[in-house]
Amino acid sequence: MLLANENQDNGNGVYPVAISFDMSTHLTPEQIAELRSDLEAELRRLQRSMTSTATASEPVALDQASVGRLSRMDAMANQQMAKTLHERELALELRILDALRRVDGGSYGVCLTCGHNIPYGRLLVMPETRTCTACGGG
After folding, report:
1. What is residue 61's DSSP assignment?
2. b/e per residue, 97-131, with b = 16+ CB within 10 A?
3. Cα 117 to the chain's mean position, in Å?
């Protein structure tokens, strides 16, 4: 049993409420194996990409003698875009690792908000998702 917060209308604020989540999966072993493979492949691709974006987000040299002002501004803008991409990649990496832990723990494919099964089609498109469409949007 997991705890979730439910807003009570009695004026006393938010109280922890026990919600029972059905951790039995609706996915077949073959579907889980396919989704695990997809997650692992995406993780490898992402880690290769993160190596490139980490290099691209290194500090820009500000040597005015070797590079013009507009070139430096362009390099700094590119550096900022690379930093933003790297931050997004780090967040995705954490979601993928979390999904792999849920696969290993037997709770993969269960919405962490409402406890309902996440449709297989949604998992195919976003295998790292933690929520069903109703709870997570999209």
Report:
1. P
2. eebbebbeeebbbbbbebbebbeeebbeeebbbbb
3. 18
* Short-list 32, 42, 52, 136, CA closest to 97: 42
3-state helix, strand, coil in the chain (%, to 5): 55, 10, 35
The percentage of residues in the chain with a pLDDT greater than 90, rounded to a whole number, is: 51
Cα–Cα dist 129/111, whole Å:
9
Which 3 state secondary structure label does DSSP give 95? Answer: helix
Convert the pLDDT of each residue in 34-70 to its tens digit: 999 999 999 999 999 888 876 665 665 566 665 666 6
User: In this predicted model, what pLDDT tens digit does every residue of 17-28 receive, in sequence order?
Assistant: 444 444 456 899
- pLDDT, mean of residues 120-131: 95
In sequence order, the 6+-apart residues with CB closer than 8 A to the CB of 122 are: 129, 132, 133
Structural domains of the chain sorted by starting position, each given as residue range(s) with its CATH number in brackets = 2-136 (1.20.120.910)
